[in-house]
Amino acid sequence: MIAQLRLKYARSLELISSIEAEHSEAQKLLEHEIGTKTNLVDSLSSEVSDLKDQLNKALSDSEESRNKFQVCQLTLDKSKEENKELLIKMKELESSLSDTCKIHEETKSS
What is the reported pTM? Predict the structure, then answer.
C-alpha cells in the first residue's frame, strides 16, 4: 500500500514536472507572440503616423494650390476685363483714324 502510494506520488511528481515544463514552454511562446504583436503594433502605429503626416502635407499643398489657382483666376478675370477695355479703345481709335483718313482724302480731293 505504501509502495503504491509512493509510486503514485512519484508519477504525480513526474506529471507535475511535465506540466511545469509545458507551462514554461507555453509561457515562452506566449511571450514571443506578445513581443511579435507588440512590434507589429509599433510598426503599424509608425506607418499610420507617417501616412497621417503625408495626408496633412497633401491637404496643405492642396489648400495652397487652391489659393494659387484663385489668384490666377482673379488675375485672368482682370486681364480679360482690361483686354475688353483695350479692344473698345482700339475700335474707337480705328474709327477715329478712319474718319481722319476720310477727311484727309476729302481735303486732298478738293
Answer: 0.53
